[in-house]
Amino acid sequence: MTDLNSKPELDAPEGPAPEALTVTDIVVGEGAEATPGATVDVHYLGVEYDTGDEFDSSWNRGQSINFPLGSLIAGWQQGIPGMKVGGRRRLVVPPHLAYGPAGGGHRLSGQTLIFVIDLLGVS
C-alpha cells in the first residue's frame, strides 16, 4: 500500500535510461483531472537516473508546490495531464524533455531524471 502522506522511496533503476518519457501510475487518483493548461499543487521527489541521487524534493521543504504546468519542464507538461487528484505518478524524463543536453548550463543538463509526483490539487 502506498502512503500518499509520506515521502516516496525509489528503488535504483536497472538498465539503460529510456530515450522517451515513461509515465507510470503508482496510485490512480479519483479527484479532478489535470489538463495541459492547469495549475497543479504537487508534492514531488526528483532523483538522477544514473546515480539515484536525490536532487530536489518538496517533501524536504515540508510543503507542496503550486505551479502552472506551462512553466515546467516538458516532461512534466506531457506527463502530468490526465493524472487525477489523489494520484501518485512516476515520470522518467530524458534530457531533451528536462534540462537539455549536457553542457546546457543547468546542473542537471544531460541527465535523465526520475520524478515521483503526488497530485494534491488542480485549478
Description:
The chain is mainly β. The chain has one domain (22-122): Chitinase A, domain 3. Helices cover 8% and strands 33% of the residues. The protein has two helices and six strands, in the order βββαβαββ. The chain has helices at residues 58-61, 74-79; strands at 22-27, 39-48, 54-57, 65-68, 88-93, 113-122. Strands 1, 2, 3, 4, 5 and 6 form a six-stranded antiparallel beta sheet that branches. The longest helix is centred in the middle third of the chain and has 6 residues, at 74-79. The protein is globular and about 40 Å long.
Topology (elements, then pairings):
Layout: E1 22-27, E2 39-48, E3 54-57, H1 58-61, E4 65-68, H2 74-79, E5 88-93, E6 113-122
Antiparallel strand pairs: 1-5, 2-3, 2-4, 2-6, 5-6
CATH class: Alpha Beta
Shape: globular
How many alpha or pi helices? 2
Based on DSSP secondary structure assignment, what is the total number of beta strands?
6
What does this entry show, briefly?
The chain has 123 residues and is mainly beta.
Top keywords for this entry?
6 strands, globular, mainly beta, 123 residues, Chitinase A, domain 3
